[in-house]
Automatic annotation (TrEMBL):
This is Pectin acetylesterase. Its EC number is 3.1.1.-. Hydrolyzes acetyl esters in homogalacturonan regions of pectin. In type I primary cell wall, galacturonic acid residues of pectin can be acetylated at the O-2 and O-3 positions. Decreasing the degree of acetylation of pectin gels in vitro alters their physical properties. Belongs to the pectinacetylesterase family. PANTHER family: NOTUM-RELATED, PECTIN ACETYLESTERASE 4. It is found in: Secreted, Cell wall. The keyword Cell wall biogenesis/degradation applies. Its main location: secreted.
Amino acid sequence: MPFSFSSSSLTNPSLRNLVWCRNWAKKDWAIAAFGFTLIVFAFALLSDSPRAAVQKLPKLNQQAPLVKLTLLRNAKDRGALCLDGSVPGYHFQEGFGSGSEKWLLHIEGGGWCDSISSCTRRKYTRIGSSIYMEKEIPFPGILSSDPLQNPDFFNWNKVNIRYCDGASLAGHPENDIKEGSRLFFRGQLIWEALMDELLSIGMSRAKQALLSGCSAGGLATLIHCDEFRELFPEDANVKCLSDAGGAVSFSLSCTLFISNALLIKLAEYVSIYQVLQKVCTRIVLLKWNRTRQLSNDLLYSIPSTYDLQLQCFFPEEIVKNIKTPVFLVNPAYDYWQIQHVLVPEGSDPHDHWKSCRLSISNCNNDQLDVLQGFRSSMLKAMNSFQQQKGHGMFINSCFIHCQTVQEETWHSANSPKINNKTIAESVGDWYFNRSEDVKQIDCPYPCNPTCYNKDFTRP
């Protein structure tokens, strides 16, 4: 399939302002790339429901009702299609009481497909086709209607956006694959059609709104954050939350430049460099071509040879141009990042990292040194973001991925805490300006006993 680039349809300011990283030194590359591949922006939403009022409400039934799938009405007419050409979908739960004119949108995750073959496989799954999507799903965590589980947003209008374009709602039809295994890269059109439909059913009246997302959905939140803000009046309170979005980003394994010392230590265990080279080349060939909202300023710098240091653009660069307040939720030891980027399957032929990949409690001292360097690089990359007013963050030291849509990690008696605050409480403090500066950064593993650490060795 031929690959071409064009300046047409450059409607998205976040992607239009992306900066190519070719002139960075290795040291800078290590810091910036590493940090924001592992991070993403967290969330911001609105709600004026006071906590005092929440205390008076009865606890809802533990068995939360399932929310039905709705297929996008005018999708086919607008060309807004999933990878396989099916109609995209979403789940909508109507708000009530003081939340009837407040809206929370959540974009689900699912990574990026990074080749024609992987995108073809994906179109036969629920993250590539509405044919395979669940017809009803629960709404946990930030989507919950239980005031004890979700004290600030429980009664808002809530939308779970199904993810089926394979590229964080950023693909463009000019890059469809029309021969052989046909694929539709229509993420931007899905976003536009979905926003129009939600506006028509009441979102246009919202005075408070939050766009959130997890993993690849967290990156989509970052990409579309300012576009989302522009849908509402100036006096509306609109913010964005990205949960673990940088960890998956564009599956940018090629951003794994830590430091020479860490690379040497990694090299003792894994053939990482060769793996990264292969992954980066695939991403450049396929994903750049699918993301049409790239400006001429960016396109001129596409390398003629796929040198490893020149192949990636970062969520960090998108973030620099976002005007809307964002909140970043991310674990310092994101298991997805460790398993798929730091030490991806196939890069560890002797299984030195196998036990560590499955549970951080199994990591030996050398492996923990690598993970601590991983955390340090991320925090350095976040330094400029941390200094900006209006943004917020919750960076805990847990071995987990996507914490806002899990009851156990969002807000419960056993949820991870920093300074005695759960993620939900920190996000609420930031969104409603209950605290002047909400930037929670945890101490290194294993200092936090409240962490919910995933253990893949257990059934």
